[in-house]
């Protein structure tokens, strides 16, 4: 892989996106060439990464470069321009399947060892473990996050608005959160005056010291510590339940056990044992014996009691039933199957569930399958307050109106694991009463400390300085480029945010902010200010930390667009390059199945269109390549037309699919380029193509439709045959010919 | 009356306050003398004003000066320092009674003519008409308003908090207001570039022009015009009723028909005819015949149908009853007597009713006498929004806590009838469709205009420039003196407020605002900002227009103190002097009756204590009279002690009354003065008095208690014999002796 100023790296990933690329990339390459831009691919599929892990076992021809390492290195190159498509976060079964497929194709790679005992097995396992799970994002996300609703998507939502539940002024729904004893109220934060090591220690009542963790911190790095009181949490849950019982409002819990994977399952577990208090009081010992873990939800009870005699099972089921009589009604995940909100911790994920509730008139579903006003319990108050603010706003002003509302893009602090989401390796459930403290390893000075009790959840969190500086720069850049006010969401009541505020103010001084509206506001003030503008059709950039980035890029898009999947997600790399992430829908195995069985690919490449347009535009800006900018802007208009004319892929075989959608994109794109007057020569290049495509629309669509309805073969799932895949994905000779004729 | 830099003018008024003055004034005079301050009285009682109106009919000895005119002139004197006690706003019956009493005392004044036909009668009536009603305030209020909760009162409320209803997060209560078609959405505003005349005209559909009003405006004067759509208003009422029917929330209407005495009765009338639509549809013609006026409430129906045959009356009552079955439950003024919210327009006055509702968990009383969640309907959205903001705030944060909350004092624009409350002479109900316009009389230029329909309510409103400039100065002064942030409540969506904002920004430049926190915010933002500070124990000055002045000086005091009657109300006169208004409880005829029958005066002079302390303090500042300031500050501390020790007057004869309370005030005041170390000589003066008073506490209280329980006589009600009144009000020889001994 070489780096050039005029090169876009287009990632080859897995499954549906990879297939779609077979059809889209030839179009992109043909068009980009007109601006002198080369589009190079970089294969970061699971299969490619597996092959790259064992070069010594492959033939010269079979060997592939370690593209992920190359891409990681490329993030440090100022001219990097990477389009990153969704890829598989491989689970062990997926990895096994990929290995087997490669072995069957003649690649002499080792199988995944069930148990690693020998040194060789350990070595193999170590290499494979680097491929498992979310291995790609940490390597590539060497920048902060810039997410927005592209103009075309926004225009589409305005014209074809999604449904929005009406809000009643008399709604009883609300967010409820702790007023003390939570992470928010105990947060302490320091900034390292110089680089150094710290120890996280637990000091027992007997004076014994247990080192929980040692950290090396950089100069200017921010370190927070905080804890949630177990007792306060349980009292809070009990209060919310009693309040619901009294007011007749349904009870629901909203946490993020998947991401906050150490702390939130514990919180969830307390909710379970408080709601089903009588059950756990009665059967607690038995449950412990049979291995019930309330942190896994009530489903753990159902699971584990299967080992018990029928009569005992019946007794327990009756006791569960009795809890419902005692407690308020609980929101259901699936009322038909009787799956409650407390069944499985991953069923209700706050950043998705709260926007859904707010979009749905502030209601959730009850046991009888009817919508009801709901108390949304979110113990940690730090971010819960913004939902209450939005609920109050909807009660006062009614539901948001997608046809008139503005937009709230986000500039999020994310680089180098800033405000590390979850802080898993620095989160501890207290085994005894005592003191948690952070100590300067060199001097022994106690930097922060908390008195804790058994069961409390203590955690620390790191944020490096360089990402903050870059984040400020990104915010200023975005405010300037979009001529939109930008608000730093920094809460005056959060210790961490006040450390950041000092940095933000200092780093803002490094920029020319003349004529920009840049504010620093607390969370409530920020969301309210943004919402007041929103309903008046005005845009406001939210400049937030990592968690709010995650929450807001669901919350606002779901109001504005009905989904967060249509957001443009850019990672301007700290070294100066850019990474453009596409789609949020995963790599979609079901789509592949449909293609293989019926030769219809329903994958929507909207994310790729959007990312590519920005990639071109930014390449144009960086290299003073005006044509690149014109290409990008024309692509945006083409995408808008595509949405407006409903030329996105249908889910149904026989109708327009991914390939047909690509044709329309190419047609509209060429039309826009032919019609633009900024670069007459460029217009002349695309005029014939535009005319041909317009003239041959019917023919191409027919050719594309003709192939549908029968099974096809592409020579592999994880490692398809490129030639076969290309043949399947490019069945229109007319279209292929027109693209070739463009070659400039 | 002479004016001196070291003189306080203490007004003699009527009834209870005048009696209390007989006891309090000797104390005040004795103490003030120590700072070289003279306390002069100015009799503005109804009786004195009657006598002053007919000098030619009185003997030399009987004649009294025209004190109100003198006071009016004094307001223009920079050294004016006036303590204004509550006085009678005389109704005709009260005036007749005062005249009769004066006649019986040998004053040859004419009787009030029932009908004025002769020139003489007309002249008499004209003179008397100047004494009727609220004749005093317009003369004296030559300044803007400065209202605050004095420290002593605040301390008392913190120590002995009033009850506050708990707020449920699930409360369904809310404010509801029009989203268009109201005064707010149609407001236009201009500032006169130079002095000139304008005409307010109605142009009919046929082109005919009717001049409704001619106005002479000053340079820089702000003139607003706006209208409320009758159709939009009635649709809005119907919507609110349907919404309540659907959600089961009680319906209530909150207007200010007493003050907005032209526009709000019309609004109220529409509420009546919409709520009881079926009734008015059926009997409308009959009602018109018998003179039912819905603007006077449903009580007008009950009144007028008395003339109808019994069977017809019964039919109508049944039809009223049927309306209740059709419509949602309505809030009751008196559920026992069946008096609903729509019975009488003056029963529910928004600035009192909304704070009461918010203090009462957001609930009002239903037909069954139970508290219920309520929709508070306030058609005009301009100010209604602040109540919704506070309701949302209480749902989120719970009820305010008087023991910890801060305070929101007010600096209100009021001078020279700024933003004239009600604008009665410029409010018109449209008799036909057409155009209302404001025209420059000199040029014919149309300055503002609205298309209106029959039934719409159109109004204009004036605000002179000089009061605005003074208001800005007062805000800066208060922010400086109290070291408290000040917020100008100027809404970006109100045309009038944007005219004012330009002026405020310009006039702020005239002051040194270095180190002050002065903000300009929209209403929602301002109240939210203030409330966020309030619950954290922080104070925020609200700098508002006239209507918000009125609303907020009830709203916040009722949360903070449980009443607005304990607020200190200062009118810093534009010419430089100061007027200190005391109490808000009226002049209390029942108190006089109790005194005459049982020799117990329950009048609470707290307002006088508070006003006097500020009067002394400000006199000290203006004249560099340090002793005056020490006296004032000691008086404040004494008032605090009095409140803390519960030495306010009891309502029950036999217990401590107004006179005893005055003794305690004197005792605490002397103790504070003796204890202070800023002025040793002053301390020495008061030390013996403090010691005597402390030693003789029991004796004085016994002497004061001894006289209670039997009838007394003071030689008149409106024009009592000063010697007799003084004797009744100063029955403790020991106290009188001690005060005399102080004479400095």
Automatic annotation (TrEMBL), chains A, B:
NADP(+) binds at residues 84-89, 137, 586-587, 591, 602-604, 651. One of its GO terms (molecular function) is metal ion binding. D-threo-isocitrate binds at residues 147, 549. Its EC number is 1.1.1.42. It is an enzyme of class 1 (oxidoreductase). The record marks 256, 421 as: Critical for catalysis. Keywords: Glyoxylate bypass, Magnesium, Metal-binding, NADP, Oxidoreductase, Tricarboxylic acid cycle. Its cofactor is Mg(2+); Mn(2+). Mg(2+) binds at residues 351, 550, 554. InterPro entries: Isocitrate_DH_NADP_mono. It catalyses: D-threo-isocitrate + NADP(+) = 2-oxoglutarate + CO2 + NADPH. One of its GO terms (biological process) is tricarboxylic acid cycle. Binds 1 Mg(2+) or Mn(2+) ion per subunit. Substrate binds at residues 134-141. Transmembrane segments: none annotated. Belongs to the monomeric-type IDH family. This is Isocitrate dehydrogenase [NADP]. It comes from Marinobacterium lacunae. The lineage of its organism: Bacteria, Pseudomonadati, Pseudomonadota, Gammaproteobacteria, Oceanospirillales.
